[in-house]
Amino acid sequence: MARLVSILLLFLVAMAPPAARAQAPRSPQGAEVLLVGRILSPPDQTRALLDRLHGYALYERGLELFKEETGMDLEEDILTRLEGTALAAIVRLGEESPLSIQARRQELTSQWNRQRRKVRRVQDALSAHVGEKGAPPDSLSELGSFLAEVGADIEGLEYRRKGDSWTLRCSFPAKSDLAAHSTPPGFDAEGNESGTPPEALPWNLAVALRVTDPARALRSVRRLLDEGFGPSAALRPLHLETRGPWLVLTDNPATLPRMRAALEGAPRVPANLARMLEQVPERPESLFFVDVAGVLEHWKDLPVQDPATLELLRSARGFLMAAWPTRDRVLVEGFLALEPPAGHPLRPLLEGAADQRVDLASRIPWSVSSLDLVRVDTLWEILQAAEETWPQAALLRGRLLAEVQTRLGLDLEKDLLGACAGEVALNVEMVDALSATLLARMDRSSGAEGDSKRPSLGSVPPFTLLVDLKPGSARQALLESLELKVGPPLPEGQIRQNADRSLAYALHRDTLVLVVGPSLRLARHALKALSGEVGSLADLDSARHFRSGLTGRLLFFSHSKTDALYSMIKGALLFLGAEFRAEADHAGLWRDAYGALSLEPGGVRWRAGFYATRQVP
To answer: In angstroms, rounded to a whole number, what is the distance separating the alpha carbons of residues 556 and 101?
Structure first.
């Protein structure tokens, strides 16, 4: 998901130089969800971009159509009026969290819709009965096979026949929430529908956009809403006003006093957010914050029944995501603050010594298309500790053991973990993953999966493992097991493959290269990197910069080559013509994407980086 998010970020970065730093976070009292910062280019940069778009017939026609539909000039009335800074918050006004209210209302709506579908199926059965028998039944119990055909039952339904007509509706318990907030769905013989679903409630979402001309912006937005470019009639209407340079929108006017106070008073930072901002390296361009502790404290009837899971949920204090875009890199960081109680097995894991070692990065070719490096020693320690309070961890551990046994014919705990120095790198080349997907679909469409004579060709894409080995008896046992399955090892730098090309391996000093599937491309290239014939991932400036920002105990580290993706973006910009040549050339430089997940005192950190570079080792 992080790699996909980069597309939007890079379009913003490529089109304009970095903007000024966002203002300090402002938070309305009771804000449970907060978005603040610069999310758009300032008006002068927007104007420069729009000027270059003029002369394109499609763009000009789009402006004309917008003006015909709304009576407004898209550029002058809207785009160049946005200053770029935004503040948005979901605000708690009463004793219950707005998110909890929405969850309960959505569950009610789902129940009502299920009942409506049930009534609709019985209505179809009634129509079928009339079509065959010529008259409606005296009771629903007479429908028999007609009900079976539509897959419906008659429990909880009220049916009344009047000659050749009838009414059919659902029945809600008198004191139920459904009865309190809706009327039961029903139909008559002509197919006319009755009943009202639960009323939509406000999210308590308030949004403030900084604009260059508040009065004009207010008129423009109101006109857009009048023309139907806003919430439908079934939803609650938006309320708008201006406050200084801010245009304020909300689905609940009761939130306005708190939003006004946040915009007019001194910047206010909630205590949870203030503590979390201390965890990020510098003030971000924009941030997204969820006050997890506040939400849970004001959640009515938490649905979690498992005490251990509930205890872990209540250990979460907040979630922060921050972004730092520049012309040559985009860094995104997420931090989940955790404060587990004393004695909780997660606590010592968070408080463990910092360790950002990624030794295998210096043994992996820099050009690898997709790589996931796992600190299996730390991950296994976490899974074992989690089993004490989280039963799902045991299931996950069991699945990992079974998967390794199936794919490699090895015992994960006895063969791999005992011999591993701590790191395992997994590579699945993009072309192999795509091929596996296409072949699997071809097999399904041709019925090959039911053919006992051969397995599905695309069931699993070929993958390559690099294992950092440590000396000892476990290492020797692992190599002996591979020798029995594949054959004795070849001289250093050569790959031994079994007869059906399902498994291969090579050994270079303390690195085991293990291949599942017929493809040996990465294995050959990895051996060149191990021997120093080609540059490694650690040689990239972007890798060094990204790794310099890692903290805590590293669990996962990933790297992807994104040349193909941004070449498509470059092609789209070149398609626009010479005016966008500079942006196109710059977009083509975005080559490397990174991700990392680590544990540290205070919580769990996720970090992603996207880099533009001319460097080719």
So the answer is: 36
Ranges under pLDDT 50 in the chain: 1-22, 233-234, 448-458
How would DSSP label each residue in 337-370? EE-PPTT-THHHHHTSPPB---GGGGGSBTT-SE
CA neighbours within 13 Å on the CB side: how many for 146? 21
106 has which bridge partners? none
- Overall size of the chain counted in residues: 617
Q: What is the pLDDT of residue 455?
A: 41
At 395 the three-state DSSP class reads helix
Q: For residue range 426-479, what is the model confidence (pLDDT) as tens digits? A: 887 777 777 777 777 776 666 544 444 444 444 567 888 889 999 999 999 999
- Exposed / middle / buried, residue 592 (Cβ in 10 Å: 0-12, 13-18, 19+): buried
pLDDT for the residue numbered 303 = 67
Cα gap 125→173, rounded to integer Å? 25
Contact 198, 128 (CB under 8 A): no
Distance CA 422, CA 439 (A): 35
What stretch of H or E contains 474? helix 473-485
Q: Where are the beta strands (DSSP E) in 408-552?
A: 420-427, 463-469, 496-497, 503-508, 511-516
Query: In this predicted structure, what is the pLDDT of residue 458?
Result: 42
According to DSSP, the residues that pair with 322 across neighbouring strands are: 287, 333
Burial class of residue 529, CB neighbours in 10 A (0-12, 13-18, 19+): buried
Query: What is the structure's pLDDT at 14?
Result: 39
Q: Which of 430, 510, 529, 511 is nearest to 465 (CA)?
A: 511
In degrees, rounded to 5, the angle at the alpha carbon of residue 211 between the alpha carbons of residues 207 and 217 is 85
| pLDDT given at position 606 | 94
Of the candidates 613, 568, 574, which has an alpha carbon nearest to the alpha carbon of residue 593? 613
pLDDT value at residue 457: 40
For the CA atoms of the chain, what is the radius of gyration?
Answer: 30
Task: Please count the CA atoms within 13 angstroms of the CA of 514 that sit on its side-chain side.
Answer: 25
CB 353 within 8 A of CB 346: no
Q: How many helices (H) and strands (E) does the chain have?
A: 20, 21
pLDDT of the residue at 231: 63
* Cβ atoms of residues 441 and 467 within 8 Å: no
Q: Where are the domains of the chain?
A: 39-90+204-264, 98-196, 361-535
